[in-house]
Fold this protein.
Amino acid sequence: MIEVAVYNREGNPVESLQVDEAVLGGSVRYPLLKQAIVMYQANKRHGTAATKGRSQVAGSTRKLYRQKGTGNARAGTIRTPVRVGGGVTFAKCARDFGKDMPKKQRRLARDSALLAKLQSGRVVIVDELSFESPRTKEFARVLGNLKIDRSCLVATPQLDVNVYKSARNLPKVDVMVVGDLNAGVICNRQKVLFTKEAFLTLLNRDEN
């Protein structure tokens, strides 16, 4: 069992939660976690780089001059890669770098990422995190009280526009609904800040 403290907005512990590692898979599956991170990074790539080959550049296909009798080296089309303005020898073409994983593997990778954060003490739980209106300064103060001074991922039980707008101008702070968490975003930030409701929602989720 892992014991996680629950803090209020002032940074004072108010209670603690017991987390059973079995709920998150029991152990960290590092090979699966690496596979998931590679997938999420690959899916961000834009395979739009392209160059023109000899069949795509402008120019006639007529032989430049006759094969023999000119004293020059043999030459064919003007679009050959050895000539200025010709095509590229091994031209790049647009490609898709995307990868895929089964849903169950993505869930296991997410659980492994969260378990790794829990074991290293990088999960912070706050009892509530709500604002009547967007308040970036107040949000930054809460992060300071919770000793979060570097990158952070904030997980909420449902979409909260005021929380999102309060955090969007803070560097390296992301806000996500707990149901949208994945191994890529969890590992991309040093700490994960859950509201108590969001954390319990994740632990009591329906796996069916």
User: Anything to note?
Assistant: The chain has six helices and six strands. The beta strands are 2-7, 13-19, 123-126, 152-156, 173-177, 191-195. The chain has a mean pLDDT of 91. The helical segments are 30-42, 103-119, 136-145, 161-167, 183-187, 196-203.
